[in-house]
Amino acid sequence: METWVMLLFMVFFAQKALSQDTMDWVRIDCGAEITDPSGGWQTDDEFIITGKSEQISTSSRTSIEQLNTLRVFTTQNKNCYSLPTPSPARYFIRATFYYGNYDDLSNPPTFDLEFDGNKWATVETSLTVITDFELVYANRGDNISVCLARTFHDQFPFISSLELWPLPDSMYAGMSRDLAWLKSYRYNYGANDTNWILGYPTDDYNRIWEPVIPASLIPVQADFKSLIYTTVDYPPQSAITDAVIAQNKIDTISLEFNFSKTDTFNHVVVYFTEVSFNINETRSFDFYVNDEFIVTISPQYENCTGAWANSPTVGAMKVELRPPVDSHLPPIISAIEVYTASDPLVNIGTSQDDLDGLEVLISTFEQLEGWSGDPCLPNDTIWQWVNCTGNDPPRVTSLYLSGYGLNGSLPDFSQMQALETINLGNNSLDGPIPEFLGLLPNLKLLNLSYNNFSGEVPQSIKKNKKIKYKINGNPDLHHPKRKNIGLIIGLTIGIPVGLILLFALLYFLTRRKAVSSQGQVTIGMGMSQGNGTAQGKPQEGNVSWAGNAGNGTHANPTPAGENIPVSTSVGSFNHPSSEDPAGRDREELDELIRLQYGNMGTRARA
Description:
The protein is of the alpha+beta class.
């Protein structure tokens, strides 16, 4: 496998001068530092500015210079080449990949290949095998974008070479221009496994033909040197003069083709010639695809004829050449091409307003240079600093540029009317905050924090109740805090009312304690004071004295053998001296009352 793969590209990339009618071809030697005008190859400097050039490992190097260099993309998640297509036409595009262990990790990556916002293929590279992909596609503008998209975090896309060339309108007439057509198979039947046809100049249209001899078929070769074409797809002569035939004239040639998808729509082209002249014997057979009759073929000597068919396929596709009973010679086939239709192409790319706004940002900030291609398509590999929604057309709804090192003034990208989130925090942006930001009709979140903005915050932002914005970390920005009228009114009314309620509660509790103290301690009077009793709070909770006063009855003595004169006013004491019955002085008694009843108790004693 490795031997013939290398042989394939050794011839393919051999230095060959291009003829005048191929001057509009594009042949890019990706990662190369010098051009090769003799073979039509050029560096990729004018087609892309992202990525870095690398050389394959010494042990993997070949004599084919275009395979010894590559361009790898380790930063952006999507990187695009812009290929010029100055005239409306269908173009062949070929991308080639040779890992060659350039990073000494022996870990060939997998990634996506895209064109004009459409997925082309998933590229699974190999340590030693060269992988190439071909596509037929009608351009829709002055350029075709070919992109490489990272699909795994630690697997970086790369590319070895990229080519583009136009096709005549008459070729592949059965291919709809509304679809792209991916080359699935292109076989040169009857050639030995070293006789690859490797593009121009052997093939005027730069196609690669793989030599194949199917099992049970017999290789044959034409006995003539010149060829007349009646097919307009113009396969190279060497692909037609080699052929295979069935072993017997009654045998059917049956060819099977498998695809990565279960359901496919395929364009099949078959090519024939009669390899020897015999006037007495004729050859004919019926061409079938998936058991559907297409046409009867009668090859002509020194004449290349062809037939094509479009066929929906479920699973494998079967191509058969069935001989009729009256054919003198077995079926024959020289070459075949099988193209598989792409999924429906993107008809509407990202909104032009959004593309224009993004171009303003990219041209303003050097940190964004190199972003190209459709930012929103395909929708599973959008640019890493945007978010998109919708498809008619897709719109950019978010910009995530926090920490990108942006500096300078913010340009006007007000045409991006679908923006809902703008995150420009943690950069070095300066100057005034643009007024247009507050006028974006769908904007909800605006982060301008930790920059160097100055001046005033625009009224369009401050008065827009739909926008939540962050502007902290801008020391030169004047932004008085917005007054919260509701909070101010609430505090103005709430604090006095709260104080009034607090004092009322304290007063109620004080009165309740004073009233509840009556009846707890009854202190007997030494003499009758009329029809009443003198009451007061005890100095100690476990001391109680009681006495009846009235009708000349003498009260019981105190434990100390002396009477304590008290006032008949409820809740107050008359102290004839500075000491209480427990032997405390005035200051100690005041302190005891303060500790037990607080300041109110102290004031009551005073």
